């Protein structure tokens, strides 16, 4: 799995891992803040962005994909920052490369199996667009709007709606994501990781809840936590300056 990625800056390596339906660009505000002091590698996970598609989609496979990029870049030690699904990929990497990991930063995700289907309307909207011949993004948004009420969600998805030789198509693998949704929402516990770990929660988000503390403590017993007030799951987009400051402070702490 030869992932697409981009490299910015110089210094100690930091790997940025996006969430479901995203791409390397989703953490662009964070990358711009970090590249002044670090080498920042932004990755398109399999079935997303410009990376290849695959029928299989486990966290161990995705973690192995990311580690292959790091090895390809000849990097021995690195830090990981992952948002949402990318946070789970980052946590899964602790099982594969714990001695090489300087810092682990997880943005609004817990190491648990989520049992609520949160994306049915999104999948329905994506499938609706795929039924039609679309010549511009505004047409695609019209179809999305039949199922997805939030303009911000539609705009986020449309960032991955790209023009190809065969017209517009979704860059992410819609059918593959639907087929593997249970795996995406699921989780297999990783061995205890005692490296430097930070969980950053959006105050209004339901992805990290009090009932998740036991699972976090079991797998990441020395983890620290930080809550960002008046933000939801997209905390890094809602309050980028605050989140960037939290991350930089943690990276530079002893």
UniProtKB/TrEMBL annotation:
InterPro entries found in the cross-reference section: AB_hydrolase_1, AB_hydrolase_fold, Epox_hydrolase-like
One Pfam family linked to the record: Abhydrolase_6
Limits of the AB hydrolase-1 domain: 14-245
Entry GO MF terms: hydrolase activity
Top-level taxon in the UniProt lineage: Bacteria
Species per Swiss-Prot/TrEMBL record: Photobacterium chitinilyticum
Protein name (Swiss-Prot/TrEMBL): Alpha/beta fold hydrolase
Keywords: Hydrolase
């Amino acid at each position: 799995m030869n992932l697409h990625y981009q490299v910015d800056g110089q210094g100690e390596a930091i790997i940025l891992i996006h969430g479901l339906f995203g791409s390397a660009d989703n953490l662009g505000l964070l990358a711009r803040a970090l590249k002044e002091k670090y080498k920042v590698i932004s990755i398109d996970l399999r079935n997303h962005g410009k990376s290849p598609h695959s029928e299989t989609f486990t966290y161990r496979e995705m973690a192995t994909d990311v580690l292959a990029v790091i090895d390809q870049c000849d990097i021995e030690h690195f830090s990981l920052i992952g948002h949402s699904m990318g946070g789970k990929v980052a946590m899964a990497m602790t099982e594969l490369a714990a001695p090489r990991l300087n810092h682990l930063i997880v943005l609004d995700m817990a190491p648990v199996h989520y049992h609520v289907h949160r994306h049915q309307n999104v999948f329905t909207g994506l499938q609706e667009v795929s039924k039609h011949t679309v010549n511009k993004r505004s047409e695609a948004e019209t179809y999305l709007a039949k199922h997805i009420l939030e303009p911000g969600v539609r705009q986020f998805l449309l960032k991955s709606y790209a023009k190809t030789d065969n017209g517009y198509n979704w860059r992410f693998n819609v059918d593959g994501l639907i087929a593997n949704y249970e795996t995406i929402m699921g989780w297999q516990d990783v061995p205890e990781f005692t490296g430097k770990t930070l969980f950053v929660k959006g105050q209004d988000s339901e992805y990290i809840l009090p009932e998740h503390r036991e699972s976090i403590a079991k797998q990441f017993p020395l983890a620290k936590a930080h809550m960002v007030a008046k933000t939801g799951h997209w905390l890094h987009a809602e309050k980028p300056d605050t989140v960037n400051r939290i991350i930089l402070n943690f990276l530079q702490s002893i």
